[in-house]
Amino acid sequence: MRGLHAYSIVGVLWFVSVCCCFYGGQACLEEERKALLQLKDSINDYPNNATHSVFQDWVGEDCCQWERGRISCSNSSSRVIGIDLFGARDPSLGVWYPNATLFAQFKELESLYLTSNQIGGWVMPEGFIQMKNLEMLDLSRNMLHQSSQSLSGLCSLKRLKQLYLWDNQLDDRSLPSCLGNLSSLEDLDLSYNNLRNPLGISTGLCGLKRLTRLFLSHNNLHDQSLPSCLGNLSSLVYLELFGTNLTFGAISTGLCSLKRLKTLVLGITNLMIEVFHHV
Ligand SMILES: *[C@@H]1O[C@H](CO)[C@@H](O)[C@H](O)[C@H]1NC(C)=O
Ligand SMILES: *[C@@H]1O[C@H](CO)[C@@H](O)[C@H](O)[C@H]1NC(C)=O
Ligand SMILES: *[C@@H]1O[C@H](CO)[C@@H](O)[C@H](O)[C@H]1NC(C)=O
Fold it and tell me: Is-contact 32 105, C-beta < 8 A?
């Protein structure tokens, strides 16, 4: 009896270890596999040229194994935690308005790269309210200036730590005041846009107490673009300001209130050293 008992335990252990080797703890959930296919259809990538498609490998049951790097899954729950759709849409199709609720179907989604997809705004932006775990969102190189509503949908992302919005032709009117609600935000990249006064009271950005790195290079910044509320960004450690119309005088006085600032990137080495001397 005792021998048989031991045999069955060994048998169970063997079975468990074989299963774990096969799946590595990852087999995608059917509902999330379907949601990914919905996403693929909505992008309508290269309909006339399949070899360009980033979705060639999106076949088979286990979506966690689809094209390495573009989909990542949690080891514990097997749910999708990362989606990378960099440059997935055929540019000749014009502006894309993705349905934000499609992404909300991934309950544990932490990072989403939608770079270079000609996104002009959202269908059902209320979908962002459900993305409770999203920490990283990259929307760089899109067309988010197209609608003033295209960024306000993001304001409900309470856990968002990194937001990349470079090269979207954004002007001051594209920045909604609710951006100050992104209370977990640590990295904000707004470079290569048409911003004049991104830190004005109307944008709410001065309220971001945890902001550590801010990228504002290549915008239409002028001396009044560094308002006194800048000092409220008390966690700011890194600031990029190259390719702007700011004068040295405005920079050296405007940044004095940033007590933690360690790195200021202006693109002119001499100037950088001098500014540190002043601060
Ligand atoms: C957006 O996606 C959700 C989830 O798939 C769906 O229920 C909804 O009908 C879609 N809305 C539009 C306008 O396409
Ligand atoms: C932003 O925060 C304010 C005050 O906490 C709140 O009234 C408003 O609804 C929030 N906006 C969004 C879009 O979450
Ligand atoms: C800056 O901080 C002060 C003091 O905490 C606060 O009264 C003010 O509203 C803040 N300004 C902005 C624009 O967040």
Answer: yes
